[in-house]
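Ticket #4471: structure export looks truncated?
Reporter: QA, pipeline team
Priority: medium

Steps to reproduce: submit the single chain below to the structure queue and open the exported record.
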Amino acid sequence: MTTIYSATADVETGSTSVAINTGGPLSAAVAPAGSLVAIDGEVYFLSELIDTATFELTRPYAGATADDVPCEIWPISQSSLDMIETARVLAATRAAINVLDKNSQGLFYRLVGQTGDADPGPGNLALDAADPSAVTEIYIDDVDANTRQVGPLVDLWSPGTVLVIRSITSTAYLGAVVDEVEDAGGYRRVLVSYVAHDGVLGAGEQISVAWSRRGAAGDAAELGIPSGAWVSDTSFPLRALVEHEGSLFLSNIADNLGNEPVLNEGAPASSAEWTWIPALQGPQGPVGAGINWQGPWEAGAYEQYDGVEYEGSSYLANTTTTTQPPSADWDLLAARSEQGPQGDVGPEGPQGPQGKSFTVDATGLLSERSPYDAEPEGFSFLATDEGELYIREGVSGWSQGIPFGQGPQGEEGPEGPGGPQGPEGPQGPEGPPGTTDYNELTNRPALGASAGLDVGTTSGTVAAGDDSRITGAIQASVLTTDGDIIYRDATGPQRLAKGTQGQVLTMGASGPQWSSPTGGQVGVEISQIALKLAELDGAAWAYGGNGNGFVDHFDTLDYVDVAGATNLDTSEAGFLKPTTQSNGIDQYTVLLLHGDGANGSTTFTDDSGTNKSLTASGNVQIDTAQSKFGVASIQFDGSGDALRGDGGADYVFGTGDWTIDAWVRFASVGGTVVDFRDTGTGPFPFLGINDGRFSAYINGSWRFGGGPLLATGVWYHVAMVQTGGALSLFVDGSLAGTWSNGTNYGCASNGPFIGSFYNGSTTLNGWIDELRLSKGVARWTSSFSPPTEAYSLPSADNLTVASEPLTADAPPDEIQILGLVEEAQSPTINTDYQIEVTRDGSTWSAVTLEYVLTDTLGRKQVRGGADVSGQPTGTAPQWRFKTSNNVMSRLHAVDTFWRES
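Actual output as written to the record:
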């Protein structure tokens, strides 16, 4: 598998050169020409490799000049991306050709759904009923979707005109016969009689309107006596009607014998005996089937009327099913002609809009790829177990895997061993010999009395009367046996008395001085060690001089003021967290489909927090025209549509409690909501429709017969709940039936199936919104009010909790905090949560927190300090943790340490 190269680099605005800082040497293997390069989230392409640390881009860097920006190199060539873009453009072109084709069939409109008798608006058409078979009136604006005035054209629809209203994007249509057209002022009211339909035309669809007028009746004509074909030497009576050489003739005389009707070059000859009768036009024959264009011929099965391109020519299949290349089973439509001379190159067109980001057509395990082997060239499949993208390359199969997405950063390796110590340098030359006899010193002063040798006892200076010969001789600091320091500053010898316990010697403005140590990085590192030890022990720790450090890990709550806390949830050991308000998504939710997204999208997102993957079949899609909550729902068209799961353990409910609930709307009553089965019978949950009512089919039988008769165009809330060996059904919150059982419920290996049977039949014709599968809980056991909003994650209450008072041997001047916080819902530090400190238990000062690091479990170490010297005197330090704005944050440990005067 190709490896993505990760590094940091220096970049400069407007430059194409990139210099690598970290990440290892570059080579043609990891950075071939044409590779995709992601720099600080922006995508470029690699032009050429300069050396092992430098490469060139195909276009100048557009970001800000910076050092050490993230840089990744993906060995994917421009040609591969061009192939993907070509497939996308081809799909868009086919869709556009389909629109043009439908547009050419008649008028072009948008369907706005069921309305009353009113103007649907420019470019729109409406029906007076949602059920196609119940449509009696059509309201069509005088302006079509191409902004053309078409009212006078509609007025030509005389009674008997046949209308066919057809979807641009599906096979759905409605056929009706015009009874009357009325000008309603700005729109036409068309009274019709229903003929036939297939599928349901959905609101918002683009449609074409084709028609066929019934011609006016012709004048009655007096025809003669049919006498068959003209035969010589036969006497024909007056007004005998005969056929001769493909034309009809009428006898003008009685006993018309031997007079042959004559045509001159296709036109009748002048004859007194015969009158030429122009051939009458027969009824129009049926419209031939359209060509289902399949593109280039590939090995596989083709149906009648499938069109393909083969060796430069176009062919049409003339048999029901064929697997042969174009030959006897095919009709030649257009033979390949000689290529003409190339035309002049036209002027360059304007730059098109920026293309959309690449969207994968299908995802799943690599073992699940085979059902897509018949997809056209350019179809993409992302293998989630490998993290590689595969592209269909036509008859040749799938491309090699292309790495797709960035994996997690690997663990840091162990530190390498230290290098050997270098050799000791040579010893310097020996100095001249000294003397131990004061009398041998040159320029020595005469020593005074012994009392004159006292250097004094006053701190900071040499006392008056001290022997100047001794003070003049002090050139550097001297440590006395009492711990005092004698040193010389700019003015002369000085004396620094010994410091107090815990102080450190630092350099001041004019000489050495004693000072208390700060709580900087050393304090943080000590606190981190104490925090880790407390976490390993699951107990509180006291440490430091005079016990001025205390770290608490919340496996037990011995040092937490639980009674004084507000909104504190103590149900889980190891951290402090706020209580929450449940909004429908919790630890029991194993699948949740809001059904939201862009109209027509085939991406279905699990919002339960477990990130389940679903595989779509048929035309199931997101539909923004209908929704119970949010902006859309999931639409099933009643023919082969389904979503299926992966048969994972979360879907095996066993003998415990479980709940299935959803909102359902029908375009046609019937079908399936969700089916866990792998055969027609057995212990599997199944929720569907029987005799026009919601019901469950378990162990080979329908289990409920209650509940209301269902209708189209209505949103119903349905819930099936298992608890204590009893299965209950609720419709719109009311109990519709129960069934006692002890079933151990399972799930098919590729279930559950949403919107259809396990075998793909009995599909739903309608919409599903807010489908939730819950394992381990019975959501309802009696009648209830249905939900009034979409399910969401729990919201946190605002928490306030403090420690029990700690003990200091003197009033602290500064209190430092090192906390371990789990930021569950992306809070803002110092806004959505904060820590305060006190030394007297009543006056609190806020600690301005900053991030230190993120541990291997994703928790944040935060630190900060507060000056409490202005608070009332006290020796009982405490911390207090507060959350705001109903954002969930969990506190795992707090280290408190302080400095005293």
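Status: closed, not a bug. The export was complete when the record was re-opened. Leaving a note from the reviewer for reference: The chain has four helices and 65 strands.
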